[in-house]
Amino acid sequence: MFQWLDNLVTKMVEGWFGLAMDSQLGGSVHFFFYDTVKILILLSLMIFGISYLRTFFQPQKTKVMLEKINGPKAHVAASLLGIITPFCSCSSVPIFIGFIEAGIPLGITFSFLVTSPIVNEAAFAVLWAAFGWKVAVAYAVMGVLIGVVSGMIIGRFKPENHLEPEVFTGEGFNKTRPDMTQKERLAFAGEHVWDILKKIWLYLLIGIGIGAAIHGWAPENILAKYAGSDNPLSVVIAVAAGVPLYANAIGTIPIAEALIGKGVGLGTALAFMMAVTALSVPEMVLLRKVMKPRLIAIFVGTAATGILLVGWMFNWVF
């Protein structure tokens, strides 16, 4: 699909920069430019398409829909809603708070909160480009499953008893209207592409830069030995290392891609990515405004367990 881009970047690296492709620096430079352009193309197309579809869903209608659905179906609906909402955990929290204020059961809102930062249209597009459609689809399915199961488990703990008494104002997940014209819908989609790219471009470049450095200089034998798919502890270490960090899925995918290229297990790399996006310290700080520590601990423990299981499964299957 992107062979033309690979050939173009190869000519640029060898011709413009005078670097050999089999050198560490040449390989890193190629990785950086190739991944940057590839991700931006896929990102823009995917965000535009999903943003256009998003104009047909208004926040109030979404809340009414979730209130009418009961049982496991409600958790599935909330998780699927999380796919088409913000790109990082900290931007998902205000919507989560809004759902709490709307009276939606907390277990269902947790299904949204867990899935939203892990799975979105942008991450899906980049995963497809990096690892193929099978991995992208499997990742999305497992991300939704983690959200559904986590929400159902957390709901069993009667989480309403562990909320702070203060009331906070939530935010709708977009600024669309039911009477938008076709021109307005297309304009909204175009503006949303630009808005998202402005917010994530730095994370994207940092992630690709780290990935390029790993691609060129990280010792393959050490990474393959201690973080390969046959080492179950590597997934635990990856999740523990990801929690203190903060980034969106877009910024972590290039790092995961480079780690996998050096012999790190696919499940280990994806578990790291999930932990960074879904269990970051900044997210916990925001959640502390509405949750007591016990509920935060239940949330982290449940989601982390799901991520560990997914990491081990990916290492075993792929």
TrEMBL record:
Keywords in alphabetical order: Cell membrane, Membrane, Transmembrane, Transmembrane helix
Domain of life: Bacteria
Spans through the membrane: 31-53, 74-100, 106-129, 136-157, 200-218, 230-247, 259-281, 293-314
InterPro entries, per the entry: DUF318 (IPR005524), UPF0718_permease (IPR053166)
Keyword Membrane: yes
UniProt entry tagged with the keyword Transmembrane: yes
Membrane topology term: Multi-pass membrane protein
Major localization class: membrane
Location of the protein in the cell: Cell membrane
Pfam name, any one: ArsP_1
Family the entry assigns: Belongs to the UPF0718 family.
PANTHER family per record: PERMEASE RV2963-RELATED (PTHR42775:SF1)
Protein name stated in the entry: Permease
Organism name: Pontiella agarivorans
